[in-house]
């Protein structure tokens, strides 16, 4: 006669603050900003393995654009953003203050304000500096591409 044993259901221990769904499992993704997904009604279905598109995805208006450039166009590289933000003592301090206050909504607002400030004061200037360094090469790319198209025709011909 077979014995039936059932294990009692235990909930896993949770930290003091967890991101809202669909990003409540971000720890399983190694705390990588690239893995953060947009929350929409479709992505909140627990059975759906696709938890939504990445928050850094640039909007794609047409199928033609997606076919040409791919659907993973991002308006900023999340890894680059994470590297710059991880080095901020200011962000570390405001996050620690939020932890001390048990992650109140006002504390999350303060962290958001700090992230926006750092984007303006650190990220954008760094993007501009790096883009200035490579702008001549980008200009050469566009000139060479047009010369190629005039000589050999469009890529779509």
Task: Give a structural overview.
The protein has 157 residues and is mostly helical. It has a domain at 19-75. Helix content is 48%, strand content 0%. The protein contains four helices and no strands. The termini are far apart.
**Major sheet summary line:** none
Q: Can you give the mean pLDDT?
A: 87
What global shape is seen? Answer: flat
Strand percent estimate: under 5%
What class, by secondary structure content? mainly alpha
Rg (CA only) = 23 Å
Helix content: 40-55%
Query: What's the end-to-end separation, in Å?
Result: 74 Å
Q: How many extended strands?
A: 0
Q: Supply the number of helical segments.
A: 4
Order of helices and strands: HHHH
Detail the poorly predicted runs: none
Features:
single chain; 157 residues; mainly alpha; 48% helix; flat
Structural topology:
Blueprint: H1 63-69, H2 78-86, H3 89-100, H4 105-152
Quick structural summary:
This protein is mostly helical. The protein is built from 4 helices and no strands.
């Amino acid at each position: 006669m077979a014995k039936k044993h059932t294990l009692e259901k235990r909930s896993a221990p949770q930290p003091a603050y967890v991101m809202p769904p669909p990003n409540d499992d971000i720890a399983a993704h190694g705390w990588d900003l690239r893995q953060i997904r947009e929350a929409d009604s479709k992505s909140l279905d627990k059975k759906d393995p696709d938890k939504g598109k990445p928050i850094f995805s640039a909007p794609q208006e047409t199928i033609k654009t997606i076919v040409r450039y791919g659907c993973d166009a991002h308006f900023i590289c999340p890894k680059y953003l994470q590297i710059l933000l991880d080095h901020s003592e200011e962000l570390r301090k405001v996050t620690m203050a939020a932890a001390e206050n048990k992650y109140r909504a006002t504390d999350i607002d303060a962290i958001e304000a700090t992230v926006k400030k750092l984007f303006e004061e650190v990220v954008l200037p760094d993007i501009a500096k790096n883009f200035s360094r490579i702008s001549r090469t980008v200009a050469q790319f566009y000139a060479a591409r047009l010369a190629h198209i005039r000589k050999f025709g469009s890529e779509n011909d």
